[in-house]
Design goal:
The protein is mainly β. It has 2 helices and 15 strands.
């Protein structure tokens, strides 16, 4: 009985150590940042959807509000925060074809694609009815790829979630003899699971990222001097429904080169 008691104690000790080790390898901030990189308005199977985002970059401010219908993205409302400017609307049409286009401003067609057991989504973008390019996002629990083909230019990006970090690699002029690459990393703070850092391939720290839980979900906050971004995520059952149409307005030039998550857009 004594031997059995010691064996049981040893077993419980091993389980505790393994559990603590697994926790130590995880980092809430890097896992949340991995979600940000997945085009988080596309996946209706995700527990969380991006609800809104806020940008204040060197005095230029704008916000995005993500609107869903039946769990799928329906539109994004873009507010440049300029006096006299109204909200700009980006409509998304799901699982359809070009016959639904209004041929006015920027429009997207989104649909699932076949990629075996991998989640796969494609976005086609149109400007005044003219086809501009396609973006294909493939998602697994620990690996993401994003491929963009736009007017003869080809980009490919991959992100890998490894323990407490996210490793990213970007390919420019993909599938050509002149392909160029760059790397980016999101590294956990070893003492704070809510904090991580964005590093370049030379190891230089660019930004500090903070994970902030709240009653509806969480946000990811990025601050650096006069550069501020924050992405808000909520449980998908608490996201907005499309209730009204806001009159489109001209977009401010300062934000033309950013996509809906603050990255460079398809079109310029």
């Amino acid at each position: 009985m004594e031997l059995l008691g010691k064996s049981k104690t040893f077993f419980l000790t091993v389980i505790t150590i393994l559990a603590l080790s697994a926790f130590a390898m995880a980092n809430t901030c890097t896992e949340a940042m991995f979600t940000v990189l997945t085009n988080p308005y596309l996946n209706p199977e995700s527990e969380f959807h991006i609800d809104s985002s806020y940008f204040n970059e060197y005095g230029n401010k704008w916000t995005h509000k993500y609107i869903y219908e039946d769990g799928k993205i329906a539109q994004i409302q873009y507010d440049t925060k300029e006096e006299g400017e109204e909200i700009r609307i980006y409509p998304f049409y799901n699982d359809t074809n070009e016959t639904v286009l209004k041929n006015k401003d920027i429009e997207y067609i989104v649909y699932k694609c076949q990629a075996q057991d991998t989640l796969c989504y494609q976005e086609k973008v149109y400007s005044d009815g003219e086809y501009k390019g396609i973006k294909t996002t493939k998602i697994t629990p620990n690996y993401i790829t994003e491929e963009r083909i736009e007017e003869g230019t080809h980009w490919f990006t991959e992100y890998t979630l490894v323990k407490d970090s996210v490793k990213g690699k970007k390919y420019y002029d993909y599938n050509t003899d002149s392909v160029r690459t760059s790397q980016i990393f999101y590294i956990a703070d070893s003492t704070d699971e809510f904090t991580c850092y964005q590093l370049g391939e030379n190891g230089v720290k660019y930004y500090t990222l903070i994970y902030k839980p709240n009653e509806k979900g969480y946000s990811i906050n990025i601050d650096h001097l006069d550069y501020h971004r924050e992405f808000f995520f909520v449980n998908k059952d608490k996201t907005s429904s499309l209730r009204k149409t806001v009159k489109p307005a001209k977009i401010a030039p300062k934000a033309r080169y950013f996509d809906l998550l603050g990255r460079y857009k398809f079109t310029k």
